[in-house]
Amino acid sequence: MLTLLKMFVMRWGAWCLVVSLSGASLPVTLAPASDDDLVLDDSWARVPTGQTGYVTRAALAELPGARTVMDRIWPTAAAVEMTVVPLAEVIAALGPAAHADGLVLRCSDRWESWMPFDLIAERDPYLLVYYEGRSPRQGAGWPTFLGIEDLAPYYAFVSPTRHPDFIDQTDHGMISATQIVELGVAREATRYAPFHEGPLATLDGLAAQGRALFLARCNNCHQGPGEVGGNTSQRPLAILQVHAQHNPDHFRNMVADPKQFYPETIMPRHPEFTDEHFAQLIAFLTATAE
Ligand code: HEC
User: Fold this and answer.
1) Looking at per-residue confidence, does 168 or 86 come out higher?
2) Which among 47, 248, 276, 288 has most CB atoms closer than 10 A?
3) Which atom of ligand 1 is nearest to the CA of 232?
4) DSSP letter at 74?
């Protein structure tokens, strides 16, 4: 018992040391060193309210937990040498606000992702810092994601080698995020409070299921109530409400196969959606309009 306790205390002590060391070794500045820096919003304890923080790529690569591994950038890619830093360590080194329980990743295309800390602890996603020793701007740069979109300036992903069965999709969208420019932290209950307020506080089954579906499949690109979420679509929620309420057939066709209306759109098809899924989404969007 005593030995166990001692081990625990030692481990805990070592862990605290790592955290405080890494905290000390990740300098945050309030002015950018270059436009290659990772941006921090003022939700971090180390960024004063109303200001913006910056960390350099080189500083991220110097965190004690940063390592150079042979891994694949997604399951079907070839293994290459990458310098990665666990996102958990970046968070610990930055010192999140005490109340926070998740990470917000904002991307240059206005895509926004939410990663609960417990999911980060479970799957240990990496932040890619150097690919074959290069930043995205050096030499041949970084590859594009499935030949479609840039990974740069920062890319977060779960190692397909370490977690071959990992499913990228969560209740709040995708875990991997390309084109990350800015990180923030928040408390889930606070961040998503507008999804549960006013008429949304008492949603019935169908609309409540629609809320979960919207969070999982739409909110990275479409802001929900309270303008929470990503805005890649650049369509305010009111537009979705109007379609859902007054033009449900078009809403359905659009969500099932957006490329028939916008051939170049990045909005994915949803061929697997059933009548039930559409009824849920329409019930939820109608409720948000009340
Ligand atoms: C990867 C990003 C992305 C995801 C995920 C996504 N959308 Fe979109 N959506 C867009 C973009 C971008 C547009 C605007 C069309 C364009 O110009 O490409 C759009 C347009 C729309 C429109 C039409 C608005 C109009 O002006 O006619 C509807 C309705 C819509 N989305 C609903 C949804 C719903 C519901 C979901 C979830 C099931 C969803 N979208 C998921 C990116 C996305």
Assistant:
1) 86
2) 288
3) 12
4) S
Provide φ and ψ at 234, rounded to 5°: 50, 35
Of 158, 190, 222, the last residue of a domain is 190
**Closest atom, ligand 1, to C-alpha of 251:** 29
Rounded Cα distance, 179 and 102, in Å: 19
Question: What six digits make up the tokens of 73?
Answer: 């950038």
What domain range includes position 114? 24-190
**Prior bond of 153 cis (ω within 30°):** yes
Assess whether the C-beta atom of 30 lies below 6 angstroms from ligand 1.
no
Instruction: Give yes or no: residues 175 and 268 share one domain.
Output: no
Residue 269 CA to ligand 1 centre (angstroms): 10
Q: What is the CA radius of gyration of the chain?
A: 21
Model pLDDT, residue 168: 75
User: Distance between CA 258 and CA 115 in Å, rounded?
Assistant: 27
Q: Looking at the whole model, is its pTM more than 0.85?
A: yes
Same domain, yes or no: 138 and 261: no
Residue pair 154/180 in contact by the 8 Å Cβ criterion: yes
Residue 290 burial by Cβ neighbours in a 10 Å radius (0-12, 13-18, 19+) = exposed
Tell me the pLDDT tens digit for each residue of 90-103. Answer: 999 998 888 999 99
222 lines ligand 1 (CB under 6 A): yes
Tally of domains within the chain: 2
